[in-house]
Amino acid sequence: MSPSNTLCVLRLIASPRGAESESLRLSHQVLDGIARQSGGRPLSVTDLDLNTLAHVDGSYARVLAGSADVDPPQPASSLQRSDNLIHQLDRADVLVIATPMHNYGVPSALKAWIDHIVRIRVTFNSTPQGKVGLLRDRPVYGAISSGGLITGDRARQPDFLRPYLKAALATVGLNHPQFFTVEGTAGGDVELAGARARAEEHVMEFFSARSSGQANSDPQSFSVIDGIQSRFR
Ligand SMILES: Cc1cc2nc3c(=O)[nH]c(=O)nc-3n(C[C@H](O)[C@H](O)[C@H](O)COP(=O)(O)O)c2cc1C
Predict the structure, then answer these.
(1) Sign of the torsion formed by the C-alpha atoms of 135, 140, 145 and 151
(2) Torsions phi, psi of 4, nearest 5?
(3) What is the longest distance spanned by two Cα atoms in the chain?
(4) Does 217 reside within a domain?
(5) Residues 6+ apart with CB under 8 A from 63
(6) Domain with 146 in it: what CATH number?
(7) 177 CA distance to ligand 1 centroid (A)?
(8) For residue 178, which of 130, 138, 226 has the smallest C-alpha distance?
(9) Domain extent for 108
(10) How many domains does the chain contain in total?
């Protein structure tokens, strides 16, 4: 949570394509929408390029499989990196995830981030009723690009990306992700132009509706929600 009036946005960048990335392009429009909806609050955007993130190591896996955390974590270990990434996520008022579909699901770079932040006893607890997220809910926006279609009657491939991301985020308490998609990017220039236009229209409509006061009582609105229960309070 930001201490001042500033709205802190954490943007995850999962595409390996740098500035040419379609999901990154779509996420710029999402950021514009957030700015329009923020009611004049200045935005502070932190970009995290996930392509440089290492996979979790053996000691991290042992800690997660055990009954207690080791204290303190070794410098440069996955555990230390996990602490840092969870702190960073927790400080954000809004999370934006710019990601392509890779083989029907999330790219491995985004999976590596998820493996670091979904952490038992820290961001969720395991109970007889199931896993209970410990982070405060906040607006989460996914800007997703795919070479083929993933929604509608003409989609000819499974979409594990959105259901998986929804489940992983809900595990830590982020329960209301909103997804935008630019689909069919592999279809050539005409198809790509149409896909971009449809995606932009969806983003515009979504944030216009919110700016005009509709659907403003859920965690997607930008009021500051207190109540984090983890040790990252
Ligand atoms: C390793 C890899 C796997 C991919 N798998 C899929 C897929 O399963 N379905 C799909 O529609 N597109 C797939 N694509 C295409 C990308 O989703 C598409 O090019 C997307 O627009 C890239 O977004 P970006 O520019 O943000 O990286 C794949 C691309 C790569 C590199």
Answers:
(1) positive
(2) -105, -160
(3) 56
(4) no
(5) 69, 70, 79
(6) 3.40.50.360
(7) 21
(8) 138
(9) 7-211
(10) 1
Give me the residue label for tokens 């308490």. 173
Tokens found for residue 83: 């602490």
- Reading the block at residue 140, the tokens are 């989460």
What's the rounded Cα separation, in Å, for the pair 182 and 190? Answer: 13
pLDDT digits (tens, 9 = 90+) for 170-221: 999 999 999 999 999 999 999 999 999 999 999 999 999 877 765 443 444 4
Residue 219, domain member (yes or no): no
Element (H, E) at 204: helix 189-211
Centre of ligand 1 to C-alpha 203, Å, is 21
pTM: 0.91
The residue length of the chain stands at 233
What is the pairing mode between strands 177-183 and 140-146?
A: parallel
Pocket around ligand 1 at a 6 A CB cut-off? 15, 17, 21-24, 100-104, 145-148, 157, 185-186
